[in-house]
Amino acid sequence: MSTPSRALVAVAVLTGLWAGPAAAQSPPDAMPLGGFAPPAFGPAMAAAGADPMPMEAPVLATDTLGSAIGAHGPRAWFGVEYLLYWTKDAPVPFAVANVGPASGTGITGAPGVQPLFGNTTIDFTNFSGVRTTGGFWLTNNESIGIEGSMFFLPKNNSGTPPLTGSDVLPVLARPFFNTATNQQASRVLSKPGQFLGNIQTTAGLELWGAEIGPIWRIRDNGRWSLDAITAFKFVSLTESLDIVDVANTIGGGVSVLQGRAFASPSTLSVSDQFTAFNQFYGATLGLRSNLHVEAFTWSVTGKIGLGHMSSMVRAARQPSRSAANDGSA
Known about the structure:
single chain; seven-stranded antiparallel β-sheet
């Protein structure tokens, strides 16, 4: 090969080595330092014994925030927890059932009349539930992420078994205040020779909630880290109180329902339902401290919630009757 030919080949090789990276690897609007781009690794450089240059992952702008240590665990996480809850007792601030002597009608305040149930509280003991939590780091160095959780405590019922009169105090009555006469009154459920019945009270409570929001790792020294937590939070608490009574008319008893009197045999029942709906809408702020040891992380979290609580109470009554003698007494 002649000298001019070798010179042309050398120029062509150098042109390819220098032009390739500038055209194919550098951004269109980027100017290499000094006007030249570093040569790409190719056959000519391999023959000269050069080491290949490692390719780096693209860097996000948010990767410079928070920790400079790097990732501690998986990019995404999900967990399930068992919950054991205790709640305050539910108040029953009125008399539900009275017992008294056979000569009376069980009206509150009458001689010998005693409350059988009421002006007390109902104990729900404890609740069993479940909470799920999941999240995802939005940055490679675990500096900014998003996390959400949801918990659910199924409805827990508590109350009394069916209450009846006794041989000592044979009259069982359901007391109430008559707004038409502004006086205490009662609905007789059990009385020897006239009525045979009972009354039962059931209280229920159900609690669930969810939250979702961003997290920011504000401190990280490799072994210990501190996260700031913010989230939108929703919590729903539903409480209910059901009172159901049944009175069977026997012998010479006469039952009265909605202004009508029914002689024996007849069965009258009244069901009262009270339901309170409580809903919280707001935000939570908190801190979470993490200790990283090998593949394990121990965390302690503290939160505070600020927002709006809305409450609504609903009351309903459902009287019913069944009578063989449908005429008035």
